[in-house]
């Protein structure tokens, strides 16, 4: 057994279960076969089959009518929904996402840094253009989006991995030095700009929420290139700055640890 971050030895079977669920979740709408999963996790086929059957019985994995394809189960959704419902920061920010959406008519996001990625925790979609694949639960590499860059800029450059980085579009940063230069600009202006780095045709503006140190959460506004004018960009930045100030002020007056709520780490 390997050690966890707290010095406690990891339970191998529990770790394997989590790895399997994460693998199935990452595949999205691409179900996997038994041998694929066994090979990917370097687990004997018989052991993988037994684990899958256990998780199917408990609703964490589902299979097709032939019993040969496997995907993430409905209990993963229920657990994810419970996470959002129980998180005081998400509850605090949601009304302000509504306010920003109404003021700008664009898509507004709340995201949280998770390792080298950002997980989308809440989204308010614009009715003016097609969806941008920004569903709740989606993960995007931190280096390739407005949310992630806003949060990376809150940390020392020494924490950045060496690279190369994944290219989601031709505009994505794929090396450490260009990203460092970009983050220096983020710090100077106070917000990040994602110019088609994560999604083609979409520009994003990201604002770290500094109610934690370093910031773990950020909000952003996404807008299609065709809709963005200098005047509209100026309004987006002004509104989002105001929204950030409101959120941080409210968070300071209603800390997660107060009122009997748990201050999650």
Would you give an account of this structure?
The chain is of the alpha+beta class. It contains eight helices and nine strands. The protein starts with 11 loop residues before the first helix and ends in a 12-residue tail after the last helix.
What is the secondary structure topology, with strand pairs?
Elements: H1 12-27, E1 32-33, H2 34-41, H3 45-57, E2 61-63, E3 69-72, H4 74-86, H5 88-104, E4 107-114, E5 117-124, E6 139-141, H6 146-152, H7 176-189, E7 192-195, E8 202-209, E9 217-224, H8 230-253
Antiparallel strand pairs: 1-3, 2-3, 4-5, 4-9, 5-6, 7-8, 8-9
Helix pairs in contact: 2-3, 5-8
Question: Could you give a quick summary of the protein structure above?
Answer:
With 265 residues, this protein is α+β, with helices and mostly antiparallel strands.
Radius of gyration: 20 Å
How far from one another are the termini? 25 Å
Q: Based on helices, strands and strand pairing, what is the structural class?
A: alpha+beta
Q: Tell me the major beta sheet.
A: 6 strands, antiparallel
Low-confidence stretches: 255-260
Output the keywords.
six-stranded antiparallel sheet; three-stranded antiparallel sheet; 8 helices; globular
């Amino acid at each position: 057994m390997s050690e966890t971050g707290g010095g406690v030895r990891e339970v191998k079977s529990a770790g394997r279960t989590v790895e399997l669920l994460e693998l199935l979740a990452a595949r999205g709408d691409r179900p996997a076969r038994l041998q694929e999963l066994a090979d990917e996790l370097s687990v004997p086929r018989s052991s993988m089959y037994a684990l899958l059957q256990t998780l199917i019985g408990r609703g964490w994995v589902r299979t097709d009518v032939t019993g040969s394809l496997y995907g993430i189960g409905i209990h993963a959704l229920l657990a994810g929904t419970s996470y959002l419902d129980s998180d005081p920061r998400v509850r605090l920010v949601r009304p302000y996402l509504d306010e920003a959406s109404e003021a700008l008519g664009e898509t507004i996001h709340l995201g949280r840094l998770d390792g080298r990625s950002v997980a989308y925790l809440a989204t308010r979609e614009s009715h003016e253009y097609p969806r941008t694949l920004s569903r709740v639960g989606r993960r995007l590499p931190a280096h390739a989006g407005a949310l992630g860059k806003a949060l990376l800029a809150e940390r020392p450059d020494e924490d950045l991995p060496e690279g190369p980085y994944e290219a989601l579009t031709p505009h994505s940063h794929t090396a450490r030095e260009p990203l460092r230069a970009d983050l220096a600009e983020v710090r100077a202006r106070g917000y990040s700009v994602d110019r088609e780095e994560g999604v083609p045709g979409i520009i994003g503006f990201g604002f770290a929420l500094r109610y934690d140190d370093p910031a773990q959460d950020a909000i952003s506004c996404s807008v299609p290139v065709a809709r963005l004018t200098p005047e509209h960009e100026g309004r987006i930045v002004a509104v989002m700055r105001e929204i950030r100030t409101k959120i941080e002020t409210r968070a300071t007056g209603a800390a997660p640890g107060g009122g009997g709520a748990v201050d999650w780490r």
